From TrEMBL:
It holds the Pfam family N1221. Keywords: Cytoplasm, Phosphoprotein. InterPro entries: Far11/STRP, Far11/STRP_C, Far11/STRP_N. This is Striatin-interacting protein 1 homolog. Residues 60-358 form the Far11/STRP N-terminal domain. Its main location: cytoplasm. One of its GO terms (biological process) is cytoskeleton organization. One of its GO terms (cellular component) is cytosol. Transmembrane segments: none annotated.
Amino acid sequence: MSALIKKNKKTVSAVGVMMDVGGNGGGLAINNKQRAMLPNKSRGEFIRNQRKDSEGMSESPDLEFDYADTDKWTAELSELYSYTEGPEFTINRKCFEEDFRSHVPEKKWTELDAAQHRAHAMQLLDGLEVIRREKRLNVARAILYMAQGTFAECSCEAEVQHWVRYNIFLLLEVGTFSALVELLNMEIDNSAACSSAVRKPAISLADSTDLRVLLNIMYLIVETVQQEDSADRPEWRAIRDTFQAELGSPLYNNEPISVMLFGMVTKFSTGHAPHFPMKKVLLLLWKSILFTLGGFEQLQNIKVGKREELRLPPLPEDSIRVIRSMRAASPPASASDLIEQQQKRARREHKSLTKQDNLDAFNEKDPYKADDARDEEDDHDDNDNALETEPFPIERDDVMPPPIPHPPSERVSFPKGLPWAPKVREKDIENFLESSRSKFIGYTLGNDTNTVVGLPRPIHESIRTLKQHKYVSIAEIQILKEEEFQKTPLSGGEEDVEMSAIELLYQGILPSLPQYMYMVLLLQSPSIHLTTPGYSILLAAAPTSKAKTDSINILADVLPEEMPTTVLQSMKLGVDVNRHKEIIVKAISAVLLLLLKHFKLNHIYQFEYMAQHLVFANCIPLILKFFNQNIMSYITAKNSISVLDFPHCVVHELPELTAESLEAGDNNQFCWRNLFSCINLLRILNKLTKWKHSRTMMLVVFKSAPILKRALKVKQAMMQLYVLKLLKVQTKYLGRQWRKSNMKTMSAIYQKVRHRLNDDWAYGNDLDARPWDFQAEECALRANIERFNSRRYDKAQSNPDFLPVDNCLQSVLGQRVELPEDFQMNYDLWLEREVFSKPISWEELLQ
């Protein structure tokens, strides 16, 4: 072991990871004894010590990444468990076998028929109602073993997957999920466990055993049922549809289960329940929202249906297919590559007999040629080759790296020309006509977009072209309808609100939505070392008065009771901690993106309400801080141990733990979950800043351009598209010098991002983006949101002037009025003072 330590001086253990986070504000509760047992370095260097720094490479391979709602089913199942939980697989098996042998002594589970399976599942369900906590936990562990596929009786992973699916539908059929929700509510309200965890100096896996077992079963049920399989039986499909409807309905404690999970996040983040296993809660929250509301394919179908319902023209293209057909551009060249290529070119100029004009042509086409020597040091990587695809043919072999071969079908299927159809808003046409009338006629006509009298013929052609590409969004129709309801509260009638799953969820989280966004959000903290990929998740966003050293501990469900004592154990825990944080980033980014997209389709002001509170919670700078790291290293990080992943670890014999086995078995060129998280965060950033000048200026103020340009090094078309979108919206504010120095990035934006026909994004002539209007823009938006929420959801505080009035004398006098007790006691005095002592003209009163 000492030799291994000498050989790998940079080996890091879990505490290196934890002290990075805990000592500087990540809030890992580790006592001095535990800290002394652990090494001090960072484990990431050991994993990557033989890998070249990807940002120093001028050409990286295309990442064959298929963006989807989730990863493969087996990968999603394996990410539920931390490697520290490995011994619990055996404990679950023992609990099941002890109970099973007492009822069926001579047979295996896989040998029973369907009736016997159902009878035993019912018997286990009855066991969840016992009073003794230990007995109830053992029964829950037995149910968890069933949900894990009774793996001890299986010989391969495929067999485990078959029995996982069979047992999950069996448990769901007998009503296990409802019983689990009731037990989870009991654990959430368990004040004794919460107070005990608050007093503990260091929280470990043992403090959350009951919660983890329940959450594991619930996650396995949701994740398995939402995966559709063509081989499913008809009764399973019926069970799936019923479960999907129940999960999105307020059947559990009069609220959807997602609201209950949001409450767990809040309770954890405020420090009242530090033992809650946050990774499992967030994963279950993500999969519950995904299952009840639908993924990206379903979102596209809902959008098409809503446009048909509103009688709007169909979408010009299917955005999912367009993005999938795109090819990644080459990444920017590094400074060292530029210098080396310039030296090669200088040597060849002495030998070449090529004419000077050919050399000039070559320099114009050289994709690695620096655009401007006066660039800032931060922007060395801004001299990119994002658009250039073909070098000058004379120097191809010496300057350009060999091209990566692509299948011929990709080249044929890629559309010629620009991938997106241009769009024009009604407001753009109005602005164009206003400026044209002011210039040629000298007067304006307000919102009139039809009168073109007195305008030159080229303006007529321009208006015709703009109207051909006019695009009316669902959001614009919703805003117009809301304005009508606000203008005519009496004659407008009642709004017909469809009580869909997303509407029920919005109503459930509306009272505490700002708090949920603060609690769930924050991915970064100034105390985190951003140079270390994977350490940028900190689930602590509540604006409390806590010191940073007293922040919450997001690693409560990954730390063992006894900290590691050997280098190999520390390496394993270090991998586990990094993986744990990556999975939390993945879950949070997916939850936020799904909610934003579904709220935007349901009603634009629901989306704006959530988006505004994300902005108030500093979401924009936090995401930028996340990307201000070696993003290629983060995406290619290999924080996984394949031999310990479920279901491999329960079927195969585990090899002896060595440094080699920790790195073996993962030959992927990237980490799916990390690339998925990066794309989600970029999409969230796009949604927050689109058409919002004040938020776009935040991107400029926080100097996001060099950060985003470094993200272009990732050769994945979808990620590059969203980076280029973010660069496009702020280009006009970056100045002429930046645009001059980054012409190839400008070309890439032109090639890949959708065009607005009269959008002068490349020149900076926008008159609508005056700095003094920024605060007014946000305030006006907030006022519109509050009016919407008050009108639709705050029925108790409606304007009394708009309430119906009963004018019938008999019905008014016949109403029973509850009088206060002090009035009843002094009723005689009131009669004397207000009635008998005052003269009444009955003739005038009756008239």
